[in-house]
Amino acid sequence: MLFYGMVAVYYVMIVNILYFTIMALSYRNISTIYRRTKYSSYNTLSGSELVPPVSLLVPAYNEELTIIENVYCLMTLNYPTYEVIVINDGSGDKTLPVLIKEFKLEKIQNPEIRGTIDTETVRGIYHNPDYPQLFIIDKENGGKADSLNAGINFSHYPLISSIDADSLLEKDALIRMARMYMENPEEMVAIGGDVRIANGCLIENGAVKKISLPRKIWPMFQSIEYLKAFLGGRIGWSHINGLIIVSGAFGLFRKDYVIAVGGYRGGYPGEDMNIIIKLHRYMLSHKLPYKVAFCPEAVCWTQAPDTYNIIANQRKRWGRGNLKNMIENRGMLFNPKYKIMGLITMPYNVLFETLNPYFRITGLLALIGYTLLDMTHWRILLTFILLNFLSGYLLGVAAIILEEIAFRRYKKISDLWKMLLFSALKFVGYHQLGVLWRVQGHIQYLRKNNSWGTMTRQSWKEESETA
Amino acid sequence: MFSHLIVAYIFIFICLGLIGLGIILLFLMKISQNKEQQLREMYEQKHHDYFVYIQTHLEDEKALRLPPGKLKPLERRVIQDKYMEWIEQFKGEYRAKMIQLCRDAGLVEEDLKALKSFRYGRRLGAAYRLGGMRAGEAVPALLQMLQKGKYNSLLIIIARSIAKSAQRPEDVIEMLRTLLSHGKPIHHLAADIMLETGLDTSGLLMKLLDDQDPALVKVGLVAMWGQAVPEVMPVLGRLVGSEEKDVRAEAVKLYLSSNPTLKDETIVQLMSDRNWEVRAAAAKALGPLHAAGSIPLLVKALQDANWKVRHSSAESLAALGEAGFEALCQAALSGAGIQREAALQRIELVMEKKQEHSAIEQMVAYNKKRLIHDRYFGVKQQPIKRMPGIAAVGGDYTA
Amino acid sequence: MPESATLQREQRTDVYQNLGERFKETTRELCGIMFLFCSGNPPQLENRVRDFLQHESGMEFEVLKDSSTQTLAILMPGFTLDATHYQALLLKQHLQETMENVDPRITLTVFPGQVDPTPGVLKQMAESTRLSTSSDIHIFTKEEAVQEPGRILIVDNDDAIREFLTIRLKMQGYETLEALDGTSALELIEKWEPDLVLTELNLYGIDGLPFIHQIKQLPVENTPKIVVLTEQRVERTISQCFQNGVNDYVTKPFSPVELDARIHRCFH
Question: Which part of the chain is the Response regulatory domain (chain C) (predicted)?
């Protein structure tokens, strides 16, 4: 039992060393990111004929509360040529009527759908010439991936960008991504944006007016978690071209390659990770040079779930999706053909993300058992716990430093205190819950329970009032 | 066993130390940043009257004065930022005046010095600001910096500075050559950078189109969208026959967009080009050119493997008066597969446009088309139901 | 005390009468004039001003005090408008640095210039200095003397642009208001009914063609003219704007002189 406990201790240390390596890569890149953000003026680019046009795809399922605000936000981006395609995925609420009323839309007769990816039946496409860049696709319910595919089929432009209906983009977000794309247009197949938590921020006119940290604890924990994952992790992974996921909330893709890999996979959560794995797979097996990049200066503000049930459901879904993706693509594991992806990213994900909870829980149980047998060994237990806590906290602090170096979205000293405090508190309870949710997600997968769970939205207006 | 624990202990202490350091660093950073921010705001307030003075007297003949008093470094930076903002906004005389002011205030000199710094960050900042101040004298040093650098987003910043400051077309071309020497197909970005120049663009474009390097020619072609430059038309005519596939496509598109008169054999040649972009561009141009003689060619192009070519051909046919529309109807009725599909789609579009025809002439034209339509399809409202969703055949998603 | 009141009035008109006479004698010569007012009438103000101006070498000047409005009139023969403006900002800065809690208000102009140095105008300048609500240095223009401006609403998210346009258009005598985003602009147009809207296309809230369209739909008596001043250079957008009834389209970076001309054309 002690032996197994020690294995767990080493496991934790190795995981952390890996985390630190990735974090170190993030640090290597942060000065470049800071400088390119500081010394690029986007105003010339944002009016230029030479910037590639983009189709924004917004899948919406029961979003009557937030959809209008989001569409207004998306229609006022700082970008020369783009279209907004909202895909109503057979919503049970008034998502479609609300849109039709607000924008006085009319059904297009015989719309032209050029793509050929299979989707659920499209019931109609709505448009109003007064809002030339806005289209609404109304279709039978088929899930998020299916909606994105329907959007791809209808879209007119060579780049597509998937955006969650509960997210608001910063005005410059898209042009910042496009700048990154234009610097290497042939190889860039996907670019992910930085997702931040909007709870607590003041939202006006479809834009984040005043930034502050969430008031409630659940969003606050997620805020810290996102900061760590995006700045600490993805910048580093992007550097070695080993990104395994581009957040579904905000990503930019080359349409031709998305179509080449057959579009999004439906029927299961985790379609955002799935499309990236497929892209890696496709590009590597066709021996094409490519890059999946992360663009931390392109920011998308999203509404985080603020009650236990919703967040639990979301995390279980993620756990399920992750496991499904790993099993589906197990052929890439340790396969030298898939380079960084096969040798580092995938094994890392299986060992340290998918299986992480089991190692930690069993390790802890083993050590507790051992200590119960012989109370004199409490020090080992304590060491194990401290080890977990301190290394995790160090990563948290390092991520906040990254934020301070390059982005500085939170101005107040009190915000800093709050972030540091919650980075520590995260390890008492929240972290353990995260482990639990992931295990539950895996159980759901094995039981073939594929429900979406509840995901209720709050209108942005209420959000600002409570803030 | 013991040694294992030691490893763990060491690990713990290292973590503790780093956490302590990190937290101290965080607070130091936050405090100094907030202080700088406050100072900036204070200085902006202090010089508010001066800024208003500048904006009021930009028009006057006399030179503008420098900010009053002795300035602290950050204060100078605040003023410089404001100057640069104005340079970016204004054109012509006003811009020249602000550039002169930057020079008079010694800001250019200061940044030229900073360009020799050992720290890359300082050099890059200086390069950015020198571009902002349109400092021609910095161009050689900036070019050197550009040539030495590895290709990344920071290099683009330097390239933009060169484009802004350059006083000679050669420098801009040199900059583009260096930028493109990294082998990335960044023609659009390069064209955007080039267009930041304060030099005469038509001269620059001529030079680019005449260049040996196809990459530079492409930048020139890409940059020409939205720029009416009559002098380059002959050069375009030559590039239309270029061997380089992309160059030819771009050149054809540009050439046709200027509504030139085309010889019949040129039309035939363009419509049977191997590159679909060329065919599509040609098909699109034939309608507005009123090249009624090309109706048979366009009908044939309705069967093209490429969606864009079919689409453009149908559009042009519909624009070619009654004869073109009749050919379209015929194709819809007697043709099959993709040809019929493309034709039907366009016919529906034309018939839908009914309400928009207000002018009498257009009304007449529409009614004539309506007659032809009814002759082929009868007077029913919806001639032939297309199955929605399967309208698409063929797999081209490039546009 | 009606007596003393008349006395004061007499004295006051005298100051301006005097000044007016003086300017009449030297019509050909350039002379800058500024009026300075500090609320609370701090002691020694006049002396401080004199000391400061004497400090500037080789400068001729004259300081007159109007005790009724508590304003100081400072004459600077030979000064052009920009030189007077610069001197004013130096003086303001000096006062703010050397005295506590002062809030100097300055109005200035130059003769011969936009306005004629009649006693009435001088009086109006002094009054407007005293009543000024903004601490900005103010330049007295002809249009202020004769009020018949057009109303322009400036819509842009960029503070620098709005500031510049406001300064410039005010100088030309237009009445201006600013809006930061599309939504508040629409509200303002309805309430204030400007003659012209000078707008960026890229705004928060609502922007681009929908914004233009909304302006046209507003239930106001006279739909305002629309001039677009924007970064957006995509040709299709430009032509769509004209189709939707935009009167003129100027791209940034812009030439202020050209913009003036285009705005002027919209008014005539």
Answer: 151-267
